[in-house]
Amino acid sequence: MNVNLHSFPIHENTVTLSCPSSGPSKKCYVYLVPVVHTKEKSRRDVETALYHLRPQSVFLECYLEPKFYSYFHEGCEQGYAFKIAKALEMEIIFGDICDRSLKTCEDRKLDELRLRYGFEKDNDMELRDMAHDMAFYDVRDLIMITRLWDHAKTRSSIVAIVGEDHIYGMRHYWRLMELGSSRVLKEAAKYEEYIRQHQPPTQLNHF
Questions:
Q1: What is the total count of domains within the chain?
Q2: Is the model's pTM score more than 0.70?
């Protein structure tokens, strides 16, 4: 269900996206709720969004392994969203990549930059910093939004709780996919495959 966000005191920069869905409504609405990690206002924004929008699913900017369970109950906005979603019996989707996978993507990006610009491995500290930033923001934006897109194709509504620095990039990639660009999905698939080849199998994507 599409909701007029101006009717509720939801974060003013919340982004509404949509795509066709095989679910009963034939369309899924996705709400990107921007948060500043560990800020009290973000906890309030999360609470308002989930109680007012009542989505079918909640998408979190985190990767869960069993040893991290306690993290989601301690007070950060992701943990707060987890607790509310559990209480309201909403599906929870863990959509980010873990630190190991991030390092894998960083190494891949570094190799690409070296090849493109002809840097030697012993003289690329600045290039390594660039690769880290590109992996931390752009690659994660790409992976999270394509995972979100994939989930949205079978659901009716999803609220995604993501850091405000990811909103622009994720919205940009979504718009490209809406316009029919296959390059976004192919690029994401390349990184997903690279992660699978270099990391242990994902232990949990859903709770």
A1: 1
A2: yes
